[in-house]
């Protein structure tokens, strides 16, 4: 008996192995194209082709609707199973749903009292407390065909006749069934999620076990951004403790945005600098050097410098940025390249330097846009009120033509 525990990002791990069972853990986090060799599930399932009893098991927390690999795998099956339990009062079977304020079923609680939570039966409005729910006699029922099973081994038709096991099957379950948490905690998690621009997505993915549907293709409204305008009393507002910059490389210019950061990831746009000129000319790059080393006056009178710079290598010769990274310090100026693959971290710092002696970092552009888009869409708060994740802009209309152009796709 052999067991291999391998990373899903390397194509070599999908070769030269023959097994009976292949398991994909957190499939939604896999690359959709493994090192340009194809789908991870198709590559992995090739390893069980010679087995007498082959089995492909795919498990994951869902992510974004339409691009989620576990959603794709689930949709390929003809059988989508949910776990039904009987109401302890009326005996009617149902699968648990979170619901909302308007639904006549789901988790309900008194305002400001998560401890009062109960489940409202969808059939007769019975009040069910978590301690009353008996899952031991529950059954998995296919919402498409009515096929059911208790143990995943023996299957029955909707007419209760025993049938052969299906070729493919999907099981869905969420946190309300878990013996390791409480409905009270789910309510607390829900209330906490409402406070964070990205919290709702996390709750839908990790607690409800559902995909999150983005507002695909939407652009930021001009008024949404104007509502975040703040009149700074100094170049750097009082709450800012750290300065960073991002440099976008174009064929005829560099654009640099300087951001000030306050506790709780509150962000203030401090400066926007455009350096015109050919990116491969030293005179242009010397002006970029000046911008990187520019000093800014803090509200308390002290001077601040930019602590960290991410410099885009796209669209120009990357070696230009590599040389500047070495000039300013390889940890102060980081060359970056974008990766439009869902699930990539905002930034991945390599463990070793590349052949030019610098750290070329990879930016998950889709992930970064999701985070920024959610924070920009969040309701504005007063300028004098410290707010985690808030984004503040100076009173400069030119900035918004650039920001509005960013589209979530």
From TrEMBL:
<dbReference type="InterPro" id="IPR046454">
    <property type="entry name" value="GpA_endonuclease"/>
</dbReference>
<protein>
    <submittedName>
        <fullName>Phage terminase large subunit family protein</fullName>
    </submittedName>
</protein>
<dbReference type="InterPro" id="IPR046453">
    <property type="entry name" value="GpA_ATPase"/>
</dbReference>
<dbReference type="GO" id="GO:0004519">
    <property type="term" value="F:endonuclease activity"/>
</dbReference>
<dbReference type="InterPro" id="IPR051220">
    <property type="entry name" value="TFA_Chaperone"/>
</dbReference>
<dbReference type="Pfam" id="PF20454">
    <property type="entry name" value="GpA_nuclease"/>
</dbReference>
<dbReference type="Pfam" id="PF05876">
    <property type="entry name" value="GpA_ATPase"/>
</dbReference>
<feature type="domain" description="Phage terminase large subunit GpA ATPase">
    <location>
        <begin position="6"/>
        <end position="140"/>
    </location>
</feature>
<dbReference type="GO" id="GO:0016887">
    <property type="term" value="F:ATP hydrolysis activity"/>
</dbReference>
<feature type="domain" description="Terminase large subunit GpA endonuclease">
    <location>
        <begin position="170"/>
        <end position="403"/>
    </location>
</feature>
């Amino acid at each position: 008996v052999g067991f291999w525990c391998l990373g899903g990002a390397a194509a070599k791990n999908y070769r030269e192995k023959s097994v009976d069972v292949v398991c994909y853990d957190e499939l939604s986090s896999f690359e959709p194209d493994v090192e340009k060799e194809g789908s991870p599930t198709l590559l992995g399932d090739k390893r069980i082709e010679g087995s007498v009893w082959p089995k492909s098991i795919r498990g994951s927390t869902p992510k974004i609707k339409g691009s989620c690999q576990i959603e794709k795998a689930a949709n390929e099956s003809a059988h989508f199973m949910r776990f039904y339990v009987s109401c302890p009062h009326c005996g009617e079977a149902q699968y648990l749903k979170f619901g909302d304020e308007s639904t006549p079923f789901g988790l309900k609680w008194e305002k400001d009292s998560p401890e009062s939570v109960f489940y409202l039966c969808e059939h007769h409005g019975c009040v069910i407390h978590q301690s009353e729910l008996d899952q031991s006699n529950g059954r998995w029922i296919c919402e498409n065909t009515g096929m059911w099973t208790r143990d995943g081994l023996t299957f029955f038709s909707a007419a209760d006749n025993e049938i052969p096991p299906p070729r493919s099957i999907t099981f869905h379950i969420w946190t309300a069934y878990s013996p390791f948490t409480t409905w009270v905690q789910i309510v607390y998690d829900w209330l906490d999620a409402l406070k964070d621009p990205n919290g709702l997505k996390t709750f839908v993915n990790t607690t409800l076990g559902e995909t999150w549907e983005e507002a695909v293709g939407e652009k930021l409204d001009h008024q949404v951004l104007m509502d975040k305008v703040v009149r700074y009393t100094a170049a750097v507002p009082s709450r800012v403790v750290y300065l960073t910059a991002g440099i976008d490389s174009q064929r005829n210019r560099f654009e640099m945005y300087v951001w000030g950061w306050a506790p709780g990831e509150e962000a203030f746009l401090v400066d926007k600098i455009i350096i015109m000129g050919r990116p491969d000319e030293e005179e242009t790059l010397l002006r970029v050097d000046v911008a990187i080393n520019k000093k800014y006056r803090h509200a308390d009178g002290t001077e601040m410098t930019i602590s960290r710079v991410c410099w885009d290598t796209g669209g120009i010769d990357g070696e230009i940025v590599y040389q500047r990274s070495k000039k300013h310090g390889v940890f102060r100026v980081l060359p970056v390249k974008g990766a439009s693959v869902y699930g990539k971290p905002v930034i991945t710092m390599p463990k070793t330097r590349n052949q030019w002696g610098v750290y070329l970092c990879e930016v998950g552009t889709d992930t970064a846009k999701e985070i920024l888009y959610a924070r920009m869409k969040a309701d504005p708060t007063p300028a004098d009120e410290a707010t985690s994740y808030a984004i503040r802009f100076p009173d400069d209309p030119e900035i918004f033509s650039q920001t509005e152009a960013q589209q979530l796709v």
